[in-house]
Amino acid sequence: MSRLFWKFFVTFWLTLLTANIIVGGLIWLHRSAEFEQQQGSRPGQPPTFMLGVAASLLQHDGEESLKQLLRDWQQSHPEPIYAVDAQGMDLLGRPVPEGALDKARQGIRDGQPGPWRLAQRSMSSPILLFMPGGPFRPEDLFGPGGGPPEAHLLGEPGGPPPPHRNMGPKPPLPWLLIATGLVASLAFSALLAWTIVGPIRRLRQGFRAVAAGRLETRLGQEFAKRKDEIGELGQEFDAMAQQLEALMATQRRLFHDVSHELRSPLARLQAAVGLVHQDPSRIAGALERIERETQRLDEMVDELLTLARLDSGTSGPLEDEIDLPALLHSIVDDAAFEAEAQGRHVDFQDRCGEAPAFIRGRPELLGRALENVIRNGIKYTAPGTRVTVEAERDGDSLRVRVADAGPGVPEAELDAIFVPFFRGADREQQRGYGLGLAIARRAIQAHGGSIRASNRPDGGLQVEIHLPLQPIPA
């Protein structure tokens, strides 16, 4: 078992054990208090009550029953009841206090009310019943309502309730309940601790597996079924592992694509050098080829560095104020000039209105993203056709559409064209390295925007860009 398990287990167990002890102790104290109250003289129960009960018991059941009542009373009450015969002897053989006996006899002779009774059964000798305590007030003798002693005889109307029975010995501590609670708390604490620690152990195993390179590790349904924070943690782990696996796959594919793209210009460079060695008279053409391939390598390295900075979030602060319509006008003018030389045209439709449309960011980075999208349209649109660039407000954002009249892209590849080095099915007809749109997506996302591609109904590809506008204080 882990240390965390024992920490949870001991904490839960001590908490439950303490709660059981406190509750059990309170219950036991309450029962003990009730027992003592039932065994002792009750506040509303006068001394004459028990004397009346004893006298009634002697008259109906005889001396043996009276003796048993006196024994029971003596075991549970500090104030005794004496039963004295004509010779002054107590029926239980107890020593009789002389002063109390004389006082009781005098009260009987004078007919005074008090804690004494004279009772006898049929033809037997009378028995003097009395309690030596005192002095007693009237309400102590007859109860809160007062009244003559005869009102307190057992069974008479208006008398007190039936006499208290002896409840036996004081209730012991509930050891069986304590032991049961102890065992139950142990089992419950162990189950609760394992319920918490078990998933954490599984998470630790998952993290170790990912750290060892097994990025396909998933926690699966074990955590998906849980509806608590631990279940959410397991789902976040699966999402993290999936993202790591995708990133590593992208990285491996990127390394493969980079090595492949570098191999071609390097091979052409080596071929040009070999031609010069074989025929020095061809050095002019070889140098031209070397210069062209070197330029291509420089462009590809520059694009790779840009892509790497965007992926790592180190492209620099996005704090400049950018006038988006003005930036688009500048990019479209440059692109239109180059397109004219290729027999293509670029139209710009500015529908932003007179209101300023600003965004905070980096002008060169955002300009490169927009330029890549427009140049991609010029590259694939058919000769003699137009690339249309539209810009208009869409609530709190600016929407830019770039539509060409090229062959379009298969529906299954519309999202893949934004992946670095992606080449479609007609790769032999494609030019470039497949990095322009990848850089465009990451740059636009860095500015809080989005980009998507779709095929036009009448042919060609349309790229739609949304960039959030931000008010720039004056």
Automatic annotation (TrEMBL):
Q: Which UniProt keywords apply?
A: ATP-binding, Cell membrane, Kinase, Membrane, Nucleotide-binding, Phosphoprotein, Transferase, Transmembrane, Transmembrane helix
Q: What is this protein called?
A: histidine kinase
Chief localization class? Answer: membrane
One Pfam annotation reads AbfS_sensor
* UniProt entry tagged with the keyword Transferase: yes
What organism is this sequence from?
Azospira oryzae (strain ATCC BAA-33 / DSM 13638 / PS)
Q: Which GO terms describe its molecular function?
A: ATP binding; phosphorelay sensor kinase activity
Name the Gene3D superfamilies for this protein. Answer: 1.10.287.130, 6.10.340.10, Histidine kinase-like ATPase, C-terminal domain
Entry GO CC: plasma membrane
The portions of this protein that span the membrane are 6-29, 175-197
Indicate whether Transmembrane helix appears among the record's keywords: yes
